[in-house]
Structure to design on (736 residues):
């Protein structure tokens, strides 16, 4: 490698090792993230045109601001951030590793100069007596010290949780692991969507980018039901799903509800939406008021049926739950168009839960709504994400690392005895203010016991 | 006994507590300060009972669920966690004057919830029927409460520093005489954030785990998620600045206040001004 080349590499490395870059990237990410919470994300063109002027659409569109979290520049920022974090950590790790793994039992003058927590005094007695008292003091108040005698000086040293220094690196590593998980998910996974009518079966799903994906097995929706609370608010959306793989029913009629998805071969199906599947049939009974006639009717929505007297009936509209539209009523209802021969069509509603309601209409013919085979389709979100385990691993490491990084500190206390001269020194890897309070407490206690 | 009666008692107790703390500031009479703490604890007990009663009432209505499902319930819970964190600090560090700057947040929450939010107990819609709701909301709000306490302490710090620099000769007088020293306030600010940050992290992670379980996407850049990340960044910056740059004192206090403002925006602003998946929308 030529020196010019290595100079370039070196400056690239320095660039990515800089803490300034890290801070700039964090601020840039935080600020640009705000745009996406203000500007509508992932809307259709019509939705955008309703909310924004043509100029704004052109400008924001050019900067990918309508789908900014997937835009090239935002992803680039995330990659830069990851490289930066990695480089910073690699650069600092050896030094920190040494601090954690190699004890420093001597309070040499160089060390002493670097400490901001120092307390010196002159003690009574001979050096061995002082040593004994100091060892007892440290053992009682902080921890049992290591004793080193060198050049006529006695050094006592106690340290606590030196490896807690590595906590931040666990946190930084965990962030990188989460990113790796996210990248794995975006490379080898997909998010898709599928609608299955009741009784229907699918073996393909469609992704957000309109790509069709073969599942490799079949999923059937045997039944879909909605249940409601008395208030009319939805209580449960439930699909009974059956998975067939190689002609074998491997999962039978598994109830899939929101917050309880179905997973098969790494592909997960989430209950997400539903709707009418279209070809519903209705079972009605029509009878004449004088009791002369009573006959059952089976109608499909929108199809007219002829009665024996020449009148026609059809279901023009139906709902599974009429409550929200007509307070005081509940359950399924259908709007009927009834046309007696030679007369104007009559429109009215029949309710499954109020079978006598149509009598009050006063017509010659009375209709009841007995049942329906109203068909639904279930809308399932389909996701395959092989990176998700890696993401959770990263999250677990992150919480662990944060606890180590915050709640544990590498604390060191030295005492050096030179004749009758005693120096107490201390340092902590974290929270100097908090350690200062601890150190001052120690010095205060020492002052008490060593009162001249 | 109904939950709403107990919530009234709660609000009243927090009001008394705040007034006593203000009186403590002015009088420096220790007994009054003690009274402030006791009123806060009485309110806390009443509130705990009230939350339990409300939980039970939802079972009586036939669709039992933890009272964490709408804006009213979350604001009430937020105020409960603030007093909880204050209580822990009070017991542990004995600087009860902090109450004068923390109890008002809890009182504000209770008063707002009771005066202008819908307090009906509603059944849970399918998306909320998950134990993750519990883990997610509890961790988030404990984190938020730590940030609220840190913000209160930071305000005290700034007041203390200003009064010390303006009349250094009469430092014994004025309301700040009851305050802990600036150094201790600064340290407590850091401690509160140090506890809040892991809780917020857990809150974000449990939220992601829940989203993954319910929808198959652990992160969808929904405005609430994005703002919680921004809040996380602000406090990460606070911690980095403190740990690696030695940012203490005034700058740390201001960062803490900014962080809490971002927290409140994440909690309320996002619902009121932006749209998204989270259900505590508006005051309905
Ligand atoms: C958000 C992404 C993060 C980035 C880009 C980042 C970046 C950095 C960098 C570059 C340093 C080196 C400072 C130095 O040694 O002088 C550092 C240190 C540190 N970071 Fe982070 N960090 C991030 C997240 C976190 C988080 C979430 C924590 C929370 C625990 C954390 C805790 C620390 C600590 C305690 C140090 C001091 C390490 C030392 O002095 O050796 N970092 N961070």
């Amino acid at each position: 490698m030529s020196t010019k080349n290595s100079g370039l590499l070196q400056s690239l490395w320095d660039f990515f090792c800089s803490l300034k870059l890290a801070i700039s990237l964090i601020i840039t990410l935080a600020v640009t993230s705000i745009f996406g919470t203000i500007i509508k994300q992932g809307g259709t063109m019509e939705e955008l045109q309703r909310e924004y002027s043509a100029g704004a659409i052109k400008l924001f569109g050019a900067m990918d601001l309508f789908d900014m979290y997937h835009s090239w520049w935002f992803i680039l920022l995330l990659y830069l951030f990851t490289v930066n974090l990695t480089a910073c950590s690699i650069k600092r790790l050896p030094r920190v590793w040494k601090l954690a793994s190699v004890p420093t039992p001597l309070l040499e003058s160089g060390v002493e100069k670097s400490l901001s927590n120092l307390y010196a005094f002159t003690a009574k007695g001979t050096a061995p007596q002082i040593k004994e008292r100091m060892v007892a003091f440290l053992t009682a108040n902080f921890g049992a010290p290591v004793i080193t005698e060198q050049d006529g000086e006695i050094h006592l040293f106690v340290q606590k949780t030196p490896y807690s220094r590595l906590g931040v690196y666990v946190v930084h590593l965990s962030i990188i692991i989460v990113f790796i998980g996210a990248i794995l998910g975006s490379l080898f996974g997909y998010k898709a969507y599928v609608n299955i009518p009741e009784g229907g079966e699918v073996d393909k799903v469609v992704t957000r980018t309109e790509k069709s994906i073969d599942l490799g097995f079949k999923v059937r929706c045997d039944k879909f039901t909605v249940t409601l609370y008395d208030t009319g608010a939805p209580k449960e959306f439930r699909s009974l799903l059956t998975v067939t793989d190689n002609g074998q029913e491997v999962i039978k009629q598994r109830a899939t509800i929101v917050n309880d998805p179905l997973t098969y071969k790494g592909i997960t199906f989430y209950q997400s939406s539903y709707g009418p599947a279209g070809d519903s049939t209705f079972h009605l009974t029509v009878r004449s008021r004088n009791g002369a006639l009573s006959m059952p009717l089976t109608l499909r929505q929108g199809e007219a049926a002829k009665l024996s007297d020449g009148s026609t009936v059809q279901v023009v509209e139906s709902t599974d739950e009429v409550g929200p539209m007509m307070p005081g009523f509940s359950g399924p209802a259908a709007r009927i168009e009834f046309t007696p021969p030679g007369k104007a069509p009559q429109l009215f509603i029949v309710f499954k839960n109020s079978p006598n309601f149509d009598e009050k209409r006063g017509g010659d013919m009375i209709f009841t709504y007995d049942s329906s085979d109203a068909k639904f389709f279930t809308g399932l979100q389909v996701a395959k994400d092989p990176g998700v385990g890696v993401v959770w691993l990263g999250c677990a490491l992150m919480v662990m690392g944060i606890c180590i990084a915050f709640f544990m500190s590498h604390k060191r206390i030295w005492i050096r005895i030179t004749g009758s001269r005693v120096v107490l020194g201390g340092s902590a890897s974290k929270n100097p203010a908090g350690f200062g309070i601890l150190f001052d407490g120690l010095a205060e206690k020492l002052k008490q016991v060593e009162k001249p | 006994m109904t939950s709403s009666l107990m919530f009234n008692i709660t609000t009243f107790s927090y009001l008394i507590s705040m007034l006593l703390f203000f009186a403590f500031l002015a009088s420096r009479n220790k007994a009054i300060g003690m009274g402030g703490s006791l009123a806060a604890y009485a309110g806390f007990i009443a509130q705990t009972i009230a939350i339990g009663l409300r939980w039970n009432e939802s079972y009586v209505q036939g669709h039992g669920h933890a009272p964490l499902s709408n804006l009213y319930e979350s604001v009430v819970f937020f105020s409960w966690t603030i007093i909880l964190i204050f209580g822990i600090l009070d017991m542990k560090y004995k600087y009860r004057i902090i109450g004068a700057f923390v109890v008002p947040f809890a009182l504000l929450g209770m008063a707002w919830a009771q005066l202008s939010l819908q307090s009906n107990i509603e059944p849970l819609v399918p998306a909320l029927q998950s134990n993750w709701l519990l883990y997610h909301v509890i961790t988030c709000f404990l984190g938020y409460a730590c940030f609220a306490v840190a913000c209160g302490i930071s305000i005290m710090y700034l007041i203390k520093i200003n009064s010390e620099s303006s009349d250094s000769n009469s430092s014994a007088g004025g309301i700040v005489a009851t305050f802990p020293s600036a150094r201790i306030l600064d340290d407590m600010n850091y401690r509160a954030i140090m506890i809040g940050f892991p809780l917020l992290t857990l809150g974000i992670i449990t939220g992601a785990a829940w989203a993954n379980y319910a929808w198959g996407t652990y992160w969808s850049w929904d405005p609430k998620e994005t703002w919680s990340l921004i809040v996380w960044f602000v406090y990460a910056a606070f911690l980095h600045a403190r740990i690696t740059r030695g940012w203490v004192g005034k700058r740390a206090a201001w960062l803490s206040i900014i962080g809490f403002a971002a927290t409140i925006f994440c909690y309320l602003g996002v619902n009121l001004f932006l749209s998204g998946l989270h259900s505590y929308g508006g005051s309905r």
Summary: Residues 3-98 of chain A form one domain.
